[in-house]
Amino acid sequence: MAKIDLELPEAELLEPMAMLDEHSRVLTWNPAAQRAFGYSPAEALGQPLGQLLGVNLSAEQLCAAASEAEASRAVEARSADGQIHLLELSLRTYPKDGQTLYLACLRDQTPLHRAQQELKALQAEAERLAAQRTTLEASLRESAYLAALTGTLERYEDLQPLAGEVVRRLRPLVGADWITVLLGNPKEGFQPVAFDGYAPELLRSFTERSALLGQDDALTLELAQAQPQFIDDYRGLTRTYPAHLAAGVASVAWVPFGRPEQEFGLLGAFRLGTPRPWRLEEQGLLEVTADALSISAQRVTRARQLREAAQYSEVLLQISRLTETALEVEEVAAEVIRTIANVADVDWIGLAVVRGNSVGLRKVWDSPMSIPTADMHKEISPVWEAIEAGNPVYIDDYPGHPRAMAALLEVGVQTVAIVPLTLGERGMAIFAAKFGPDRPWTRKDRSLFEAAARSVRTAQEHRDYLRAVEAAAFTDALTGLGNRRAFDRDLDAALNSARRHGYPVSLLMLDLDGLKQINDTQGHERGDALLRGFARALHSTLRREDRIYRLGGDEYAAILEHTPSRQSTLVAIRARVDQAITMLRSDGFPEADVSAGLAAYPADTTDLQGLVRLADERMYEEKALHRARRARPNGDERG
Question: Is 554 tagged catalytic?
Fold first, then answer.
């Protein structure tokens, strides 16, 4: 390619430009082009422009451009860093030294395109906002009302005072003679909580009976699906309410808000006298107001749900704490029922208890209602059915239940829940009742009852465990008698009681002779059998009220209350001990013997330690005599 000395026009040096030969190769590359596309003149010169920038520009297209005064088209180009630019490419011929060259002006339209796109987006947003504003201005003719409505929403947490202020402000804006807010539900009807305007007949028509959907063509069932109704000519409806006609109702608007399963209501506007159509801005104003009431209703629902959740959590916490108390299981159950009664939807709740063949109801909560609590045979009671199966029973239609109790039906019980707490012949259950119709047990109530039942069962298991631990701590594992710890506890309690009530107590200390010899000659299993056999023998010969202990090894003790210190008493006690030894010998331990020591309160001493010491001393004195007696015949001394 021959070198051509060229200079681009100075006036156009600010724009990216290139001079091209007939093959679209770059002959000149100005600084603006270098800045725009990142190619230096050394990189650009000699390169076809289409290849350099990724532009579709063939030699034929270049020649075609020569036939136009100044061809211009939009193309996409790629810079050295890979970015895509939207260019306005204009070509014009540029004669030079007998050759036809082409001046390419590469105007980067990317910023302009982006600005145009942003402008379009802003314009679309502005149009959307303008449409919103137009809609709001059409429905809220007075911006002051909108501001007041917003402020009112922030100020009130309860729906009723909010409704009162809303209807007062709204009525003149929508040209209504009377306006009201009704709360309720589609099933039971609606009652007014706020109204504004003077129409006593209308007010009376709503307060004397609940407004029911479907009772006239203005209160259609579609209102429950959040579909507002604007009736321009109420009198022209096929079905009307006579009290409304008598009050002079000409036009009616009903706008629902909230959710039928939660806080649900109707905003109603009435025009009296001559029918007047509801204009679009008036309809919009009523609908926006209903939206505000719906927000408030949702806030009330959420607040109530949060309160209920907090109460529910607090009740569960209180119930769990009850399982850690020292109360008996039946009292724990009663406390649990009193606790859940504060949050459950019940009219009466108590404790059903199985006693033998009967089931009785125990009142444990101060219920405003009353039901009979007389016992009935368990086989005809649904309580026993639930306890026997171990599953809760929820009866939403109690009068229709085959085992419904006539006494409960007579007082109007409609709904019953029976939730077993403990099972078996001494089983207990929560018994809850409702008196009003159409009040089924909710999931929340069921969960609460069943959580209470689990807590009572946990309390019972905890109590059984503590008793087992306590029994193990105070019981000799080998013989089943009380151990040293139980002996110390019971002797202290017995002497304290004797002091208070003034009766005698005797302490019998026993040392079983022959244990060591049996262990050494026959083994420890045989020795253990000796210890257990002596325990059984003592149980058989001493009085039923006497308490017997194994203190360790071959040492035993017995606490004998109400035993006077007369000689005849001492002789009788010794005779019972000898009888026990006789039984033991007949059970296969012919060499068994026992040494005994007896001390009496208060005849011998009034001191606990002194009583034990004295009984021990007398027992060892007898043991020494036994040893001496056994040693004389053959000189063998056995322990």
Answer: yes
* Tokens read off for 581: 């030894």
Long-range contacts of 352-359 (CB under 8 A, 24+ apart): 352/383, 352/387, 352/418, 352/428, 352/429, 352/430, 352/431, 353/426, 353/427, 353/428, 354/378, 354/383, 354/384, 354/387, 354/424, 354/425, 354/426, 354/427, 354/428, 355/426, 356/425, 359/383, 359/384
Asked whether 257 and 291 are in contact (CB, 8 A), the reply is: yes
Q: Could you say which DSSP state residue 442 is in?
A: P
- The residue ranges of DSSP E strands in 39-149, in sequence order, are 71-78, 84-96, 99-108
Nearest to 328 by CA among 353, 346, 348: 353
**Amino acid, res. 624:** A
Distance (Å, whole) CA 127 – CA 348? 62
Structure-token match 């600084």, residue found: 31
Q: What angle do CA 373, 374, 375 make, to 5 degrees?
A: 115
Residue in 260, 330, 279 with CA at minimum distance from that of residue 138:
279
The residue with tokens 């679009």 is 280
Residue 124 CB contacts under 8 Å (≥ 6 apart), including other chains: none
- pLDDT tens per residue across span 37-84: 899 999 989 988 888 888 877 767 777 765 665 557 788 888 889 888
pLDDT category of residue 638 using cuts at 50, 70 and 90: very low
Q: Which positions ≥6 away from 365 have C-beta within 8 Å?
A: 337, 338, 341, 348, 349, 350
Give the separation between CA 193 and CA 296, rounded to whole angstroms: 14
Amino acid at position 572, single letter: A
Pairing outcome for strands 505-513 and 428-434: unpaired
CB atoms within 10 A of CB 161: 15
Opening angle at CA 300, ends 295 and 304, nearest 5: 145
Tell me the pLDDT tens digit for each residue of 79-110.
889 888 888 888 888 888 878 888 888 888 88
The pLDDT confidence band at residue 635, using thresholds 50, 70 and 90, is very low
Give me the pLDDT at residue 616, please. 94
Question: What contacts 348, CB < 8 A, 6 or more positions away?
Answer: 365, 367, 369, 370, 371, 413, 432, 433, 435
Per-residue pLDDT at 123 exceeds 80: yes
Which one of 233, 554, 587, 636 is the catalytic residue?
554
Closest of 357, 408, 409 to residue 380, by C-alpha: 357
Amino acid at 195: F
Name every residue whose Cβ is closer than 8 Å to that of residue 491 and which is 6 or more positions away in sequence.
Answer: 507, 559, 608, 611, 612
Report the distance separating Cα 378 and Cα 601, nearest Å.
52
Which strand ranges, in their side-by-side order, compose the sheet holding 393-395?
A: 376-377, 358-363, 348-355, 428-434, 415-422, 393-395
**Residue 348: φ, ψ to 5°:** -145, 135
Enter the tokens of residue 120. 């379009």
At residue 156, the 3 state secondary structure works out as coil
Structure tokens belonging to residue 136: 């709001």
pLDDT of residue 543: 92
Instruction: Check: CB of residue 20 under 8 Å from CB of residue 49.
Output: yes
What's the CA gap between 391 and 449, in Å, rounded? 12
Q: Are 293 and 285 in contact (CB under 8 A)?
A: no
* Ordered alpha helix ranges (H), 19-97: 31-37, 41-44, 49-53, 59-66
